[in-house]
Specification:
It contains six helices and nine strands; from the N terminus they run H-E-H-H-E-E-E-H-E-H-E-H-E-E-E. The protein is an alpha+beta fold. The protein starts with a helix and ends with a strand. It has two domains: 76 residues, Arc Repressor Mutant, subunit A (Orthogonal Bundle); 81 residues, ADP-ribosylation fold (Alpha-Beta Barrel), CATH 3.20.170. The structure holds ligand HQG. The site of ligand HQG has 19 residues, from strand 4 and helix 4.
């Protein structure tokens, strides 16, 4: 499988495992798991050629570890980024002192006023690395990186979680914790 095909399939998996399983009539359980066999069968019947080897290659080599198999390899789910209501069972965790959020420059005025909102997703996503945050923000145009005083948020009782692929998650970041420079 070349990298172009892997990317195309990975994007399709993000769609059906995070947002629209109904597109291929796939069932996810409450924790967001799909049965591997069913996923493969339904992808194939929707013109996405997939087998266990290809799926394993995508799960193992995905640049952001977007997907994970259950320990028995019978099930698969997305590690984060859902708009569907699923319970990933994440445990709260103390964040590093600072975390970063990349966003398009055009969003800054609104973020200054309203803070960071989770939008369609379950949580606001924060990165531990500025370069990762810049990449995330650049998906929407000319971007900038905001520094979030997560230590203070945590001390003020706001909760943090970390997805299995290392993304930091929180419900909302009020403007007072954001350094706009
Ligand atoms: C912005 C990708 C105006 C926010 C990435 C972002 C990440 C506001 C956009 C994951 C705002 C939401 C999530 C406000 C927030 N006013 N704009 N008050 N508050 N925003 O895609 O964080 O590749 O839902 O800055 O790597 O960009 O899919 O969130 O620009 O981890 O695995 O509203 O998605 O992961 O956009 O990205 P998103 P995000 P994957």
């Amino acid at each position: 499988m070349d990298s172009k095909e892997a990317k195309r399939i990975s994007k399709f998996l993000s769609l059906v495992l995070r947002h629209k399983p109904e597109q291929i009539d796939l069932k996810l359980d409450n924790a967001g798991w799909a049965m591997v066999e069913e996923l493969i069968e339904k992808c194939n019947s929707h013109s996405i050629a997939l087998d266990v080897d290809k799926l394993t290659e995508i799960v193992d080599n995905n640049d952001k570890k977007r997907f994970v198999f259950s320990s028995d390899k019978q099930k698969i789910r997305a590690n984060q980024g859902h708009s569907l209501q699923v319970d990933l069972g994440l445990e709260q965790k103390e964040p590093p002192v600072l975390l970063y959020h990349g966003t398009a420059i055009r969003n800054i005025d609104s973020i200054k006023e309203k803070g960071l909102l989770k939008g369609e997703r379950h949580h606001v996503h924060l990165s531990a690395q500025t370069d990762v945050a810049m990449q995330v923000g650049s998906r929407y145009g000319k971007a900038t990186v905001l520094t979030v005083n997560t230590d203070l948020m945590y001390k003020d009782g706001l909760l943090f979680y970390q997805s299995e692929n290392g993304v930091w998650l929180t419900d909302y970041v009020p403007p007072k914790y954001i350094d706009f420079k």
